[in-house]
Write a structure and sequence with these properties.
alpha/beta
C-alpha cells in the first residue's frame, strides 16, 4: 500500500511535465527482491519489462530536475485555489501525513492541545485546513484566522461542510462553546484575551485545539512582546509539531531571500537566480507604471507595505493594492514587491529597515511577509535607492 501511494503521488507531480509515465519500484528484502510496475494498479513485473521501457528512452535528464517543476501546477493553497482544495486535487508530503496522523489520533481520543509550526512555504495552512476538514465529519469545527478574511476564506465558508471560518476579532465565549474542534491559523498575531477564550473552551468544555504559527511572520512590536508561541510552549499539555520541508516556495527564491537578508551567508553552491528579477525606478510615478505593466501584462501580483494611519511615508504612493497584512496566509505564483530608501545594509551585511511611520510595525518583518508570498517568480522593484539596487543585482548575478 505504501508503494502504491508513493507511485501515485509521483504520477501526480510528473503528469504536469509528461504525457506518458512509466512507474517502477525495486524492493530488496534480505535474500528476496521484487520489481513492481504501477499503471493505476500495482503489479509485480520482470526486469525485462523495465529494460524494454528504458530502450525506448532516447534522452534523459540527470541534473536540474527541480527546474522542470512549476509549483503552481501541483501546489494547492486552500485560500488562493479553494476549488482545487475542495476537490482534493492535492497530496500531502510524507512529513505532513505523519503529523496529520498524530494530530488526528490525539484530537479524536481526547481534548488535546497541539501546535503546528514551520517557516514560510512548509505547508502549514494546507495541513491545518486538511485536518480541520477531516475532523468536521466527527464534530463541529471552527478555523480562526488571525487576519483579514480573503475571498478564499469566504468561498470555503460557503462550501466546506461542518467547518466554520471566522476572523479572530469575532471570537467570543458564546460562539466558541459550540465547537468540538478549534483550529487557529497565524496564531502569532492573536490577542491574549482571544487566546484565553479559546483555551477556556479547551479546558472547561473539552474542545481539541490546534494552533499554527510562524514566529518570523510577526509584523509588529506588540506581537513580538506578546510572543504567543512562547506562551503556549510553557504549558505542560501543549505539544508542538514542526514542518521542516519547504514545499511551496521555489528553492531558488528561498535561497535568494536568505542571501539578501544576510549578505555574508555562505551557500553550498553558487546560484544565478533565474526566477528573480531586480529592476529600478527613479521615481514612485515610474514605479507605478512598472507595477501596472507587471500586473497587467506579466501576471504578477503586487503587494504593498501596510501604511500608517497617523504619519505619511513614501510607501503611501503605492498603497492602492493588497498590503502585507491583507495577504497573510496567502501565496501567489509571481510576486512583485518594492524596496526603497527605507532599507539599507548594516556594516556586517544584514538587511535593515527604518522605523515604520506606524512605530508598532516592523518594516523588515513586513518586507519578509511580502517576499515570502512568492512561489514561482519574484521581482523586486527598487525605488530611488541605487546603492541597494547595485547590491541586490550583485546577489542575483552571483557576485556576492
Amino acid at each position: 500500500n505504501r508503494i502504491e501511494r508513493q507511485l501515485e503521488r509521483n504520477r501526480y507531480y510528473l503528469k504536469h511535465i509528461a504525457d506518458c509515465i512509466y512507474s517502477f519500484t525495486f524492493v530488496k528484502d534480505n535474500e528476496t527482491q521484487h520489481l513492481y510496475q504501477y499503471d493505476g494498479t500495482l503489479k509485480e513485473c520482470s526486469l525485462k519489462q523495465l529494460t524494454n521501457v528504458l530502450r525506448k528512452m532516447d534522452e534523459y535528464v540527470d541534473e536540474n530536475i527541480e527546474g522542470l517543476f512549476k509549483p503552481g501546477d501541483y501546489l494547492v493553497s486552500p485560500l488562493n485555489t479553494p476549488q482545487k482544495f475542495l476537490e482534493n486535487k492535492y497530496y500531502l508530503t510524507s512529513q505532513q501525513e505523519e503529523i496529520k496522523t498524530d494530530i488526528l489520533k490525539a484530537l479524536r481520543n481526547s481534548n488535546a492541545l497541539r501546535g503546528l509550526t514551520g517557516a514560510a512555504g512548509t505547508g502549514k495552512t494546507l495541513l491545518l485546513y486538511d485536518i480541520a476538514r477531516e475532523l468536521g465529519s466527527y464534530g463541529k469545527t471552527c478555523i480562526v484566522h488571525c487576519g483579514v478574511l480573503s475571498d478564499g476564506h469566504y468561498q470555503l465558508n460557503r462550501r466546506l461542510p461542518h467547518v466554520d471560518i471566522i476572523s479572530a476579532k469575532d471570537v467570543n465565549e458564546s460562539a466558541m462553546r459550540n465547537y468540538q474542534y478549534i483550529f487557529v491559523d497565524e496564531t502569532q498575531r492573536i490577542y491574549p484575551d482571544t487566546l484565553e477564550i479559546i483555551l477556556d473552551v479547551y479546558e472547561k468544555r473539552g474542545a481539541g485545539c490546534v494552533f499554527s504559527y510562524d514566529y518570523m511572520q510577526v509584523l509588529s512590536h506588540k506581537e513580538l512582546d506578546r510572543n504567543i508561541p512562547a506562551v503556549l510552549g510553557k504549558r505542560n499539555d501543549f505539544i508542538e509539531k514542526t514542518l521542516t520541508d519547504r514545499i511551496r516556495t521555489n528553492k531558488e527564491i528561498a535561497l535568494f531571500i536568505n542571501k539578501i537578508r544576510n549578505l555574508k551567508l555562505k551557500q553550498e553552491e553558487q546560484t544565478r537566480f533565474k526566477n528573480v528579477d531586480i529592476i529600478y525606478a527613479d521615481s514612485y510615478a515610474e514605479a507605478g507604471e512598472i507595477i501596472e505593466y507587471y500586473c497587467g501584462e506579466k501576471d504578477y501580483t503586487f503587494i504593498s507595505y501596510t501604511t500608517s494611519k497617523f504619519k505619511s511615508n513614501p510607501i503611501d504612493y503605492l498603497s492602492g493594492y493588497d498590503n502585507t497584512h491583507r495577504v497573510i496566509g496567502q501565496e501567489f505564483d509571481n510576486v512583485i514587491f518594492s524596496m526603497d530608501e527605507n532599507f539599507r545594509y548594516s556594516e556586517d551585511g544584514r538587511l535593515q529597515g527604518r522605523i515604520h511611520p506606524n512605530p508598532d510595525y516592523i518594516f523588515y518583518r513586513l518586507w519578509y511577509q511580502g517576499v515570502s508570498r512568492a512561489r514561482e517568480r519574484l521581482c523586486i522593484l527598487v525605488i530611488k535607492n541605487k546603492k541597494l539596487f547595485a547590491t541586490l543585482l550583485s546577489v542575483k548575478n552571483g557576485d556576492i
